[in-house]
Amino acid sequence: MKTHSLVLAAAVATLFPALATASCGAAFCTVNTNWTTQSALTAPEPSFDVHYEYIDQDQPMTGGDKVAVGQIPHHHDEVSTVNRNLVATYSRGFGNGWGLAVSAPVFERDHRHVHNHHGEQIGESWTFTELGDVRITGRYQLGSGGDLLNPAEGGVTFGLKLPTGRFTVANDENERAERSLQPGTGTTDLVLGAYYHQRLNASDAAWFAQAQYQHAVNSRDGYKPGAQFGADAGVRKGFGQGFGALLQLNYVHKSADSGSAAEPADSGGHYLYLSPGLSYAINGKLQVYGFVQQPLVRHVTGVQLTADRAFLVGLSGQL
């Protein structure tokens, strides 16, 4: 059963790394990546998850339509943002229904846009590798259900996203990047969620559903990120020795950013993704996994950069 629980670790997250798409296209994958901390809440063993995300946002969109760079005139014509995110999570259950997870992202980000200045087109770019905002999330299991062959568990999650990432990153010309591109928002955000999952041991399968809401409780230097709501559902089916097939639907709705340093006319939207993946249990305490995320629906406010697909690979297990 330990091997099966670890294979499930590629299916649902303790925290939801919500999409942070804005005009310049800073982003997370929305794939859930760590089921261990929810499927084994009573186990005292600590667990970890480390995954790498690659999102190349080079497709401008307005509403639900693709457009060319500069097709709709703006002060800045966004060209591309390449996101390479490394996210590490440490989680521990306390054996009484309570648990805690701490997650820290590191962003390697390359952004290019064209600055339209008095009829002149000036190319500008930013490249940086920075620690992002750390998230601390607690959880409480409300109860168990199902039967011995089909055990089910549900609970709530709650916590904070802390303002640990910088929001003053500048390029070689000492021009600060747009706030939506920065590695940190500068704000403290409240995170609330709920989850439910069930293991179907007789068929070596499982399914889950999860929802989460994130809202900034303050603004910082003229910027407040828009509230985000995410909902996920997924299944996992075992096949072969240690292999698992994974499939998720990920939905995100993001409100517009606000404040004098924000771009409310070019932020916010809603997105639906299909995310198939595979996992492999190396042994009873370690497994690897990978996902490809394909957008089914993209509807943005104003003009924003989007990605036609995203990729994620990771490693998780018990310590």
Automatic annotation (TrEMBL):
Span of the signal peptide: 1-20
InterPro entries per the UniProt record, alphabetical: FApF
One Pfam family this sequence matches: Phenol_MetA_deg
Keywords, comma-separated and alphabetical: Signal
SUPFAM superfamilies linked to this entry: Porins
Name the record gives this protein: Transporter
Species this protein is from: Massilia pinisoli
